[in-house]
């Protein structure tokens, strides 16, 4: 167990490679010092300068290879950590609704169950199934995008305000929240020609993320404005939640990445939502970015898209 923990530790390859680089440097300095302090050796080597050059070059190459190996090893260790965290999150995401479904089915088997309670349990089971379906769809989408499989696009002229309201209603219903916790502030005349399914997935993930990382007082604003000079639309989803440290703003779009903070760990999640957003936005010809003044000060997730996407 101790050896397994060491092989997963980032500090171990860094320490080993640092020691190897230091040893190479010591050999290089020692060799140079020995040559300079022994003129007779230099005289003997004048005819074989290529040997001295080859020795120094070999040490430099060895140091370069060691450093390169360390960089790749650290990346692999981090990826393994993220995948382990992802598996833990998936287990939790699947176990909770399945346990609820099992309890509902056991309760429904009671012969003396009142009709009103029967209907309430049916709605609960329906909500759990919808939650599982949304979760599985997110995982499958992330898998396809990670495999660089570009989804087929069907371009349509879309009312951005109408699509945002529809996505907000679906997310708040699954989260068992009132409709007014998500306010859509988009002009009715603002339209965009793009893939509706992909953009809907982007909006649902952004709104779900904003709700998830809000506090008890959920207040999310979805807004959009046209940037006529560039032929683009800037779409923003703002919350007043836990915020993101500035050093992590770029990394939140990486696959499996979750900010290493207790406030994040205590919330369900897999580190795939914003990765899916970033990949889908790129496929739509746009870009995604995260903005936050810091922890506890809320987050704004901004997506910039062309107003008219050209078909591939």
UniProtKB/TrEMBL annotation:
Where is it found, in Gene Ontology cellular component terms?
Answer: plasma membrane
For this entry, the protein name equals histidine kinase
From the Swiss-Prot or TrEMBL record, what is one GO molecular function term?
phosphoprotein phosphatase activity
CDD domains named in the record: HATPase, HisKA
What keywords are assigned to this protein?
A: Kinase, Membrane, Phosphoprotein, Transferase, Transmembrane, Transmembrane helix, Two-component regulatory system
Species = Nannocystis exedens
Q: Which residues cross the membrane?
A: 12-34, 50-74
What processes does the entry annotate via GO biological process terms? cellular response to phosphate starvation
The kind of enzyme this is, by top-level EC class, is transferase
State the EC number(s): 2.7.13.3
Q: Which InterPro entries match?
A: BphY/WalK/GraS-like, HATPase_C_sf, HATPase_dom, His_kinase_dom, HisK_dim/P_dom, HisK_dim/P_sf, Sig_transdc_His_kin-like_C
Q: What reactions does this protein catalyze? A: ATP + protein L-histidine = ADP + protein N-phospho-L-histidine
Origin: domain of life: Bacteria
